Amino acid sequence: PRSVTAAFQEYLQHLGLQDFPCGLGSWDKSRLNARRSPGAEPAGLEEAVPPGEETPEELLELLRDQHSPWALPPDCGPPEQLLREVAVLAPELLRGSGVLQTVTSLRLLDKGVEEVDEGLLQFQQLEELILSANHISRVTSAHLPRTLKILELGYNAVSDLQDLCARPPPEIQHLGLGYNRLCGPSQEKHFSVDFWPNLVSLDLRFNSLTNLPELASQLSTLPNLYILLLQGNPLGLIPAYRGFLVDSLPRLSILDDIYIWPEEREQFHGLARQPELIRSEARVVVSIGELKGLPNPEAFQQLEVGSEDPVITYSYFVTYEF
């Protein structure tokens, strides 16, 4: 399976950290020699740069000018720009595994990643890991750096959180699991303070979670939960869904991108103590207005009684997937 570290190495090649105007080469040879020679004066001023070389300021301008042929592609952001500037000012820091020690944010979106491998542990300063829109089905907490604060796994194929919750990074503040395959009621137990003591934001949109009382009970143990996204789950069809959560989670401020005002909290006060109002079923009415491309049975000529002609019958069925 394609791993995170394999995708990262490909990502580094895309950034060209060892190629002009980054890295080490004839364009900054004198600066390299100055750094290698103790007591030597660094060639930082433009007039001290030998012919054929570029000053650090000129090299940085080639990276920053959006019209430059060496400018970053549009899909890159500040972390990529910072890495490239480090590759200009101090390229020796990015030699070998040194680059892994400088990365604090890693974004690998839609890169075909299937495995979160233990190579991630080499990123000893990593605080943000964005792996949205890949093909990840399971995450082992032992492969995640303990420094992580943001873990985004939206639009993947995660169906079980047992491995992730074995020993998750304790400082995680945002956990993104929207648009995955989490099915209740076995997964609700994984969202308690025992696993996420510092969680501020939780995204669980468009999964298959069904047990609202159990989920609310677990979420109520999170002392810092401020933002919760749950729309798109079957439990969202329960008529008392929003009111029950608002009353169950008094510290919550935003639910499904809608701010919880004091008037709304007062309106639903006491609802959490009335579980009999939480129905475990929902009624869905589907109406079919028109079907096209199917033969009309009424158009067939009726056979006479006693006819020996073969009889052809047609039957149809419609399948609904919820």
UniProtKB/TrEMBL annotation:
Residue ranges, annotated region (Disordered): 32-55
Domain of life: Eukaryota
UniProt cross-references to PROSITE patterns, sorted A to Z: LRR
Gene Ontology annotations for the cellular component aspect, listed alphabetically: cytoplasm
UniProt-listed InterPro entries: Leu-rich_rpt (IPR001611), LRR_dom_sf (IPR032675)
Entry keyword annotation includes Repeat: yes
Keywords: Leucine-rich repeat, Repeat
Keyword Glycosyltransferase included in the entry's annotation: no
Protein's name according to its UniProt entry: LRC43 protein
Source organism: Phainopepla nitens (Phainopepla)
